[in-house]
Amino acid sequence: MAAPKVAVVGAGVIGLSTALCIAETCPSCSVTVLSDQFSPNTTSDIAAGMLIPHTYPGTPIHVQKQWFTETFTYLFAISNSAEASEAGIHLVSGWQVFKNTPEEELPFWSDVVLGFRPMSEAELQKFPQHRFGQAFTTLKCDCPPYLLWLEKRLKATGVQIYTRKVADLWELHSEYNIVVNCTGIGAHQLVGDEKLFPIRGQVLKVHAPWVKNFIRDGDGLTYIYPGIHRVTLGGTREKGSWSLSPNPGTTKDIFDRCCSLEPSLRGAQDIKVKVGLRPSRWCVRLQREVLSQGGLKLPVVHNYGHGAGGFSVHRGTAKEAAHLVGECIAALQGSSSRAKL
Ligand code: FAD
């Protein structure tokens, strides 16, 4: 069989990192990224990009921990390299605070992030409304620079990148041997996945360069995440809402909630409001499927549905998707050698 032609549909953090893993693990493949939108117009551009895992109820915890560990290890190496600033990857320390002690004092990811410990009394004095807290150091992606860095890496490894809206995965069957579906919330329409739904998130990106530590309320709704240039203030989780229009009342509410955690934010400037739709699902859809029509077959690998945690697990799920692509290639090679006999 000639060099397998692989199309990756989608250019958010999942599509770009999956294409990169495929190109790295299968150098003989010809990899192409097809997407109707690229940075800065994807959901991935809106994200805060913090490596704090979201829990997928339908995925075993040991699998989620492996995805997170692989992602953390990969980005930690970048943060320690001369690429860190261009890739927008940096370490950030801070606090997760709770009004009441949580049932699970040690989350599954506590030994993957760095220096996880209960907050001291002195630290808790900063948060008079909270009784318990965890301090740790994690990684943060500044999302648009990271997406551009991934695109640059892809081009350097010979991956082709084209703007194209795909109406039906089958339309790619005559041009590609394998298709990888990384369309995020777009998969709802593209493959009619009714289990996939949006959780709308509104955030503010502000100029407040004195804020150096992250602060996250344990309920996950209110957070302050400092990036290299701007601080992300959040947020909202509106299940089932498809609206991409900012809501001014929500903007004021987010700002007030963040100021109650960090009063100095009252001096923040240049407030920009962004909205994104988290591609949410009971579990990430990471699986092979074979489409067939009129006796022809098209192997597909799905990798979408990362909800609120796509950045936290992207490298781990990309590696697994690349492994599934390897299985598709082996199956294709097996059937083409059987056909020659
Ligand atoms: P997307 O970024 O949406 O990319 C999908 C791609 O597919 C796009 O390029 C799109 O154009 C393309 N596409 C779709 N349909 C088609 C089609 N038919 N044909 C061609 N192309 C198509 N995660 C974290 O880990 N940490 C955080 O701190 C964090 N903060 C967040 C804050 C907010 C407000 C939001 C909204 C999300 C946050 N997330 C966070 C979640 C994270 O953003 C997502 O999990 C992640 O971006 C999903 O990436 P994706 O590549 O699957 O989707």
Automatic annotation (TrEMBL):
This protein's record includes keyword Flavoprotein: yes
Alphabetized Gene3D superfamilies for the sequence: D-Amino Acid Oxidase, subunit A, domain 2, NAD(P)-binding Rossmann-like Domain
Name used for this protein in its record: D-aspartate oxidase
GO CC annotation terms, alphabetical: cytosol; peroxisomal matrix
Gene Ontology BP annotations: D-amino acid catabolic process; L-aspartate catabolic process
Highest taxon above the source species: Eukaryota
Function: Selectively catalyzes the oxidative deamination of acidic amino acids. Suppresses the level of D-aspartate in the brain, an amino acid that can act as an agonist for glutamate receptors. Protects the organism from the toxicity of D-amino acids. May also function in the intestine.
Protein family membership: Belongs to the DAMOX/DASOX family.
Residues bound to D-dopa: Y223, R278
InterPro entries per UniProt: D-amino_acid_oxidase_CS, DAO, FAD-dep_OxRdtase
Places the protein is found: Cytoplasm, Cytosol; Peroxisome matrix
Transmembrane segments: none
GO molecular-function terms, A-Z: D-aspartate oxidase activity; FAD binding
SUPFAM superfamilies: FAD-linked reductases, C-terminal domain, Nucleotide-binding domain
Residues annotated as binding FAD: T43, S44, V166, T183
Catalytic activities: D-aspartate + O2 + H2O = oxaloacetate + H2O2 + NH4(+); D-glutamate + O2 + H2O = 2-oxoglutarate + H2O2 + NH4(+)
Primary location group: cytoplasm
Signal sequence region: 1-19
Span of domain FAD dependent oxidoreductase: 5-324
Keywords from the named record: Cytoplasm, FAD, Flavoprotein, Oxidoreductase, Peroxisome, Signal
Annotated EC: 1.4.3.1
First-tier enzyme category under EC: oxidoreductase
Listed cofactors: FAD
